[in-house]
Amino acid sequence: MIKKILLLCFVCWNISYAYTINDVKNFYQDKKFSKACSISGNIYVAYKNNEEFLNIFASSCLKSDMINRLVLPIIKLYKTKQARENAAYFSTILYEKKMLYYALCDNIDISYINLPKTDYILSKIFNKFVQGAYDLKDGKYWFGNSKDATIKYKLSIEERNGIKKMYLRTYKNDSIIKVRVYW
Q1: Backbone angles phi, psi at 138, to 5 degrees
Q2: Which one of 45, 50, 169, 181 has the fewest beta carbons within 10 angstroms of its own beta carbon?
Q3: 177 torsion bin: left (phi>0), alpha (psi -120 to 50), beta (else)
Q4: What is the spatial distance between Cα 86 and Cα 49, in angstroms, rounded to a whole number?
Q5: Could you tell me whether strands 140-144 and 175-182 are parallel, antiparallel, or unpaired per DSSP bridges?
Q6: Distance separating alpha carbons of residues 176 and 159, to the nearest angstrom
Q7: In 34-174, where do the E strands start and end?
Q8: Can you tell me the distance from the alpha carbon of 132 to that of 164, in angstroms, rounded to the nearest whole number?
Q9: Which positions ≥6 away from 52 have C-beta within 8 Å?
């Protein structure tokens, strides 16, 4: 029985390391960002000093809304000016997420925070939140879209299984088209 368990562990370990940086690049180029992000986490140790890999890893995670995974590439992006700039960009988004979560969970005023602007949706919501540019209805924060009046966003905290999570729902013509979950 122990031999079977060890064999299974060995097979799973080998499968997770069967991917290479080229696989990650291919998934990224094919816009399979979730897959690229997940695989990058599995092979991180092998490529943790490769800035190209780290940037693809972080970008994939950002594009697939798996921003908690940005931590690993952020800490290793420091060798070049471009890497530091990218690390600051990813860190800003991660910080905005944490501050929104803090504000919503604990009713903390974050209106005094001024951070660089990014094109990531959570960053846009963060900026509108600190400016007070929202409608508060039943404990949910509603945000409009300045480019498209048919699109709205709802930001809320919901507790499931004892864990508070932040939900950002995107609506188009009053129908949900995307749900992002953060904590």
Answers
A1: 55, 40
A2: 45
A3: alpha
A4: 15
A5: unpaired
A6: 20
A7: 135-137, 140-144, 151-160, 163-172
A8: 23
A9: 21
Q: Regarding beta strands 175-182 and 135-137, do their DSSP bridges make them parallel or antiparallel, or are they unpaired?
A: unpaired
- 166 token code pair: 């932040």
What are 108's two structure tokens? 């903390």
Question: Which tens digits make up the pLDDT trace of 3-19?
Answer: 656 445 454 444 545 89
Q: How confident is the model at residue 162 (pLDDT cuts 50, 70, 90)?
A: very high
Length of the chain: 183
pLDDT digits (tens, 9 = 90+) for 87-126: 999 999 999 999 999 999 999 999 999 999 999 999 999 9
Contacts of 86 (CB under 8 A, 6+ apart): 55, 58, 77
* Burial status of residue 80 (CB atoms within 10 A of its CB: 0-12, 13-18, 19 or more): exposed
Structure token digits, residue 61 = 């995670």
Regarding beta strands 140-144 and 151-160, do their DSSP bridges make them parallel or antiparallel, or are they unpaired?
Answer: antiparallel
